[in-house]
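Sanity check. The docking grid for iron/sulfur cluster depends on where the pocket ends up, so I'm generating a full predicted complex first rather than guessing from homology. Inputs follow.
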Amino acid sequence: MSAWKQPGGTDRQGSFRESTVTSELGRTVRRRRGFHRRHPRWRLQQISFSRARGGASPSTDPDSITSSGARIRRVNIPSMGLASTIKQHAIEVGFDLAGIAPPSALQDLEFLPRWVRKGYGGEMHYLADPRRDDPRKVLSSVKSVICVGLIYNTPHPYSTNVQGCSAGERTSTAHHATTRDVRSRAWVSRYAWGIDYHHVMRRKLEQLRTTVEKLAAGVETRVYVDTGPIVERAFARLSGIGWMGKNTCLINELKGSWFFLGVILTNLELAPDLPAPDRCGSCTRCLEACPTGALVEPYVMDASRCIAYFNIELKDVIPEQFRTAIGSNVFGCDICQDVCPWNSRPLSGVSGPLYNDDPRDESSGAGSGQRRAATTSLPEFQPMQVEIKSHRPLSPRTTDREPAPHLPDTATFSLFNPPLESLAALTKEDFRRIFARSPIKRSKYRGWLRNLCVAMGNSRDLRLLPWLEAAAQHPDPVVREHAAWALRRLGAAG
Ligand code: B12
Ligand code: SF4
Ligand code: SF4
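Predicted complex below; grid placement will be based on this.
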């Protein structure tokens, strides 16, 4: 059992209708209603189902053979004690979720090369690293994968609920603002409001590693938080800390999906947990809400169409056909998580309808009315207050020909839903200083300017014209091209 799980967490399975069909691989499998007909998800689910349903549990029935003929490996009884100790310690060092996965994730990982071959990884060539196929390629003695999750959510409203955050034109549920001032706000993804999660997670993971290494002589470990060739969600899914949602995020029934993942590979043989059952049901809210159509089918993202890919990972030109849909997202995108009923919560003092009023929430099993995503009080993940040391003159050019800053409203602003002109006031030096320990530094200043141009073009705020005119003279051709696009778009709006 994962440390967070409640007893009886697999109860809803009985409510699904099943029929027998032949799978893509020609094997006879049982099919669940509500699943995409030809989807590989079937097979993944069948495995977790047979185990969760009274099928032999690897923790209690060592070295047994299931009715389907699959062999369940022998697990030493003492390892259950070790597993519990480790999960307990993970919670003590501050993680919100902990579970143990077996060292192989064959069904999940066989999807990866096909995904990469289809070009869904875009320019993220590191995703094709062959070591990602098998964790034994990074730790040959690996016997268990310790998976942890850390909540980064705060009580601030969602991007789809704040005024002035255009979620892109395809999103019919977006609440478009009407006044010019409100329109010129930007959205920085929730995960990037504070300190870079790699630092925060790493510190806690190192504490956990110390405990694990003290448990027995000769223990080997490798720690990763998005820092190595490990497909973290595949193992986290098997460890039971969440299921993979149709938006491809790992979702925990009690906490929602706003959590980071980290893993420790170890040669300790630990009793694995059971995968969490899929609780998306017939809900499709994330697929409908995605402004760029990146969720090409349930559980499958074409990352080369994802806004988070465009404004974080892509280093050059953002394809023009997607720029309008990017709306006011200047770093990352939260939309497919904002609309998820497992993350929904009552909002007070914020305009716009409450998700909880939407009858479609029932279709996911999340129910309507009361569910709230967990939040954290960790200071590291609260929205950063950015201080600009001094106001700068409003002028279309600076000596180094970087875009001239528009006068900010104030010298201090929060990264929660910040005014676009305040972000535009940051010079390269500001950017480096302010975001030195923030995930935002990943886009580099050049990418940041490019992203601001796109958001400004979508803002319809003519006050931003002088900044864009300066940006159109920038030495970098990528910045120039996006500024020219924004000027055309603003011109059309004016
Ligand atoms: C590349 C990457 C991205 C890319 C591509 C995202 C993607 N869906 O693949 C981009 C830049 C778009 C991105 C965006 C974001 N990312 Co990112 N990203 C990664 C990274 C580095 C690799 C992911 C990867 O391997 N993708 C390839 C696909 C194929 O793998 P996968 O989605 O992980 O799915 C695997 C399994 O889940 C399995 N599987 C399980 N069930 C099923 C069912 C079916 C039917 C199938 C087919 C497969 C399957 O199949 C896959 C592997 O074979 C991971 C860290 C890591 N090292 O793993 C973080 C990671 C996934 N990202 C994370 C986060 C927080 C984000 C953002 C929220 C940031 C933001 N706000 O902008 C968004 C979320 C967007 C979204 N809806 O997923 C977290 C996710 C936490 C969580 N709760 O799920 C991770 C784990 C980082 C971390 N250590 O916390 N990300
Ligand atoms: S993060 Fe945004 S663009 Fe990417 S899949 Fe989710 S909604 Fe679509
Ligand atoms: S929005 Fe609905 S379909 Fe998408 S991940 Fe959440 S519950 Fe699943």
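Relevant for the grid: The radius of gyration is 24 Å.
Also worth noting: Residues 23 and 123 are 32 Å apart (CA to CA).
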